Amino acid sequence: MVSSPHEAMHRIFQEYPGLFSRVSDVLGVAFAPPASATVLTEARPVERRVDTLLRIDTQDDETFLLAIEAQGKKDPDKPASWAYYLSFLHTKYRLPPLLLVVCQDRATAEWASRPFPVGPRQWPALTLRPLVAGPHNMPVITDVAKARKDLALATLAAITHACDPDIGVILKTLSAALRDAPEAIADPIVELTAQGLGNRPAAQQWRNLVAVDLSFYKSSLSEEIRDEGRVEGLAYAILAILEQRGVDVPDEVRERITGCDDPQVMHPWLSRAVTATTAADIFPED
Questions:
Q1: Which of 119, 175, 261, 275 is 20 to 30 A from 33 (CA-CA)?
Q2: 127, 131, 198, 114: which is closest to 159 by C-alpha?
Q3: Domain span at residue 195?
Q4: Final residue in a domain of this structure, among 133, 157, 190
Q5: How many helices (DSSP H) and strands (DSSP E) are in the chain?
Q6: Which has the closest alpha carbon to 19: 71, 79, 66, 88?
């Protein structure tokens, strides 16, 4: 079952820890590629409240903690919580912490990017400065070769641009880049993208693309997507045939057709739509 976009925006870094070094390059802050990355899942209050916490050991022998937060909207209480998280993590692990906030909304991303001072205005004792990845600074990837070169970055870029007017082109590029990818690589990309799009209109575009462009590819989600695509296509075809033949389709019949999720039931309806004199004639059981 696909869950919220919130989870996809931070879980992608658990799937692809090396993604952060490429994201930081995009954001203009260079970090060496990781030599190793460990997900810290210890059951303590702060670890549970940070969306994803990674220990990064870079190829330049630098070690730091990466706290990743997915933020869906402005929250005036959040900067104080973030400052607390980072202070606690620094005290506990004795490693420098870094906060990355991932957003899908431009206004939220710009709000999260602002420095947050802690202390009197005359002399703040601390200043919170998160890195922020969102639609205001993540690349719009519409070149298949570029997407294929870095599928993880292309996936995060697609998720952060879920509300972009060009999301259809972005998703088409990503699906095309996956055509030659092994199943083990395509599987998490397909699922994270679907999860990241949530219930936005772009989610159905992605399902349609997976059904067509990745028809060779088998997974529980892709099979579910293709089944949904077949059902929607059958419903559209039945209604289109009836309407083109001038057969009136009452609302209750339309709802019955669009509400059915069994292709085996719908195929006889499609056959009968060619000769039916009334919309109800397509239902042999009646």
A1: 175
A2: 198
A3: 144-217
A4: 133
A5: 13, 7
A6: 66
Give 40's contacts (C-beta < 8 A, 6+ positions apart): 47, 53, 54, 55, 65
DSSP for 222-266? HHHHHHHHHHHHHHHHHHHHHHHTT----HHHHHHHHH---HHHH
In a domain, 183, yes or no: yes
Q: What proportion of the chain, given as a percentage, has pLDDT over 90?
A: 50
Token pair recorded at residue 229 = 């695509």
pLDDT at 53 over 90: yes
Cα 74 off chain centre by = 19
DSSP 112-181: HTS-EEES-TTS-SEEE--EEESTTTS-----HHHHHHTHHHHHHHHHHTTT-TTHHHHHHHHHHHTTTS
Q: Which two tokens stand for residue 66?
A: 């990466």
Instruction: Say if CB 230 and CB 260 are below 8 A apart.
Output: no
Q: Are residues 114 and 168 in the same domain?
A: no
Does residue 63 have a pLDDT over 60?
Answer: yes
Report which DSSP code applies to 33: P
Residue appearing with tokens 């892709």: 222
Q: pTM for the whole thing?
A: 0.73
Partner residues linked to 55 by β-bridges:
38, 65
pLDDT at 269 over 50: yes
Average pLDDT over residues 127-148: 95
Q: Are 85 and 50 in contact (CB under 8 A)?
A: yes
Residues 25 and 125 in one domain: yes
Asked if the structure places residue 165 within a domain, the reply is yes
> Residue 102's beta-bridge partner residues?
70, 133
Q: Which amino acid is at 272?
A: R
